[in-house]
Amino acid sequence: MGAYVRQIANLLYKLFIIIVLYSLSRLFFYVINHNTFGDNSFGELFKVFFYGVRFDFTSIIYCNLLFIVLYLLPFNFVHNINYKKVVTILFYVVNFFLLLLNFTDSEYFKFTAKRSTADLFRYIFMSNDTLILLPQFIKDFWFIALTWLACVLGGILAIRRSPFRETGRYDFDLKAWAKVIVAFIFVVGLLFAGARGLGLKPVRIISAARYTSTANVPLILNTPFTILQTLNEEEIKPVVYFDEKKLSSIYTPEQQFHGLGVKKRTNVVIIILESFSKELIGLLNDGKGYTPCFDSIARQGLIYENAFANGKRSIEAVPAILAGLPAFMDDSYISSRFSGNRLIALPTILDKEGYHTSFFHGGRNGTMGFDEFAHIAGIKQYYGLNEYKGEGAFDGNWGISDEEFLQFYAKTLNTFPQPFFSTVFTLSSHNPYYVPAKYAHSFNDAPNNLLKALRYADYSLGKFFQTISKMPWYKNTLFVMVADHTGEVQNKAYNTSSGLFQIPIVFYHPGDNTLHGVSKRINQQTDIMPSILDYLGINRPFLAFGKSIFSTEKPDYAVNFLGGIYHYFQGSYMLLFDGDKSTGLYDFINDKPLKNNLLKDSAQLASGMEEKLKAMIQQYNSRLFNNTMINPAGL
Question: Fewer Cβ in 10 A, N or C end of the chain?
């Protein structure tokens, strides 16, 4: 029996070392993302790290159940040298791969503002982008690989120096066998019960909110845990907050503009700018920014001071902009199982109105499924890396640099019949932030690679407008400039639940001086589709989870979703809602750090906002689940 007790002690020692390594990876996560979590007091950080072990333990036990059983089997064959090698390799491979997920997520978190979930793997396998960019990522983030390797080697060394000596063989009598079997069942059961939790429901992602503030939830969690929790989870589930009659009276995405005048035969160009966060736009930050060309163009149009992205990833921006679909699930619409559902997007409607439709992106064809979604959205012509014709401008990793691709875009637009609808998505300000060698010293006012690439993208945008301003169709074109999402936070003032989604949205028409000024109204990406249809005077029925910026009949609002929390913006307020109840209400305009939770003091306001948000969620989930994401009147 003593030999088996030593075996159990050895197991617990190995698991303890892995827990220590998880805590070290959390420390690394904290250091890399100090701008996000640096305002916490020592006491709060101690609490986060202490309770973080709870979630680490769950991940470690769940992922090591097979190893635990194989290691603790009370039979002599477990001491066979080949058996021990197989079990040891299983232990090391599983745990050090999961540890790697923790370390790599430290950098990825800067862009997504959440721990990665199971949709990460669907995103990775959508195309070969990750494999192609992997060498560049390793080069750029060598310190992650080095730190992970140091933890691996340190872990192996510590595990091999276990203070509990293993026996080479068990020698049990019948009575001892009975005790050992009981011990085996007890230890495995106890570990599993501890990992699951003793409550009616097992420990979940949302359980982290019991121990810390919403802002610290990503720090208290670990990436293997969030992946495990979402591995077999439905992207969305139908919810019923209201009966159908009341639901439609509160909110419906079905829309149609009636009583409009003569239709405008205006060309429409949407320019999606990679990672152009509001915090980087000089025009929106008292002249302090990195986008002089963008600012110059925006001053001639109508720019929104309180505009929001509906998601945190490029793959979520395209459905929001072209089809009015917010990102209300961890998986993106493009990579979800709902991507084959019926959809009547903006290009489909404009195609029926006689518009030529196209989509341009300088990346490899297949990148993030843009080409496939463009087809679903009704776009007739897609131009990617394969279709590019011009100077050799491949950045070596991602695609064609912005300057050359935007010039190619300008020349190609000039060949299209009018009216045309076209979208272009820039890429140079996406990691790995490539700036051509000829501009190596041109943007030295930018302090880091991201901002240098952003300055280059802005410069390329300026050259694009210089080129097209001489073309005959220019003055009969509505331009919409919008960021896909925010980039890595540079200023702590924007490192909030509201700031993480704030982007610029600009409507500019060289021949229409009514689109001018800086508006304080709330605007979002899903407003673009209805706004364009309203502006053009098109009265076809459509569906979009946004409203026209040219209408004042309904209150302005914006919505987004991150890490299981819905954000609903209305007026100067932001409501946080976890799917069951509201957890916060903040005046995001007058209380930018979001220090004062007004949920109790403004219960009536919160209740009204929650009702609207619930109706929106119910409409979105049920329509996606039942494949009714269309306006029946438009069929």
Answer: C
Which of 496, 574, 564 has its CA nearest to residue 37? 496
> Residue 525: which CATH number?
3.40.720.10
- What is the rounded distance in angstroms from the CA atom of residue 619 to the CA atom of residue 324? 13
| Residue that terminates a domain, selected from 552, 579, 603 | 552
* 8 A C-beta contact, residue 333 and residue 327: yes
Number of Cβ atoms within 10 Å of the Cβ of 182: 10
39-63, pLDDT tens digit by residue?
A: 888 999 999 999 999 999 999 999 9
Distance CA 543, CA 441 (A): 48
- Judgement on whether residues 39 and 124 belong to the same structural domain of the protein: yes
- Boundary of a domain, candidates 206, 230, 254: 230
Average pLDDT, the chain: 90
Task: Please report the DSSP string for 504-557 in residue order.
Answer: -EEEE-TT-TTS-EEEEEEEEGGGHHHHHHHHHT----EE-SS--TT--SS--E
Q: Token pair for residue 441? A: 């010293």
CB neighbours of residue 424 within 10 Å: 24
In-domain check, residue 602 = no
Q: Are residues 388 and 313 in the same domain?
A: yes
Please check whether residue 328 lies inside any domain of the structure.
yes
> Residue 623 is encoded by which pair of tokens?
């329509």
Residue in the block written with tokens 């499924």: 369
Q: Within a domain: residue 557?
A: no
Whether residue 618 lies inside any domain: the answer is no
Over the stretch 532-560, which tens digit does the pLDDT of each residue have? 999 999 999 999 999 999 988 888 999 99
What pTM, to 2 d.p., does this model score? 0.83
Number of domains in the chain: 2
CA 54/CA 62 separation, integer angstroms: 13
What distance in Å separates the CA atoms of residue 269 and residue 573, rounded to the nearest whole number?
32
405 is in which domain, residue-wise?
273-552
Task: Give CA–CA dist 562/568, Å, rounded.
Answer: 12
CA distance 253 to 545: 5
Write down how long the chain is. Answer: 635
Contact assessment for residue 501 and residue 567, using Cβ atoms and an 8 Å cutoff: yes
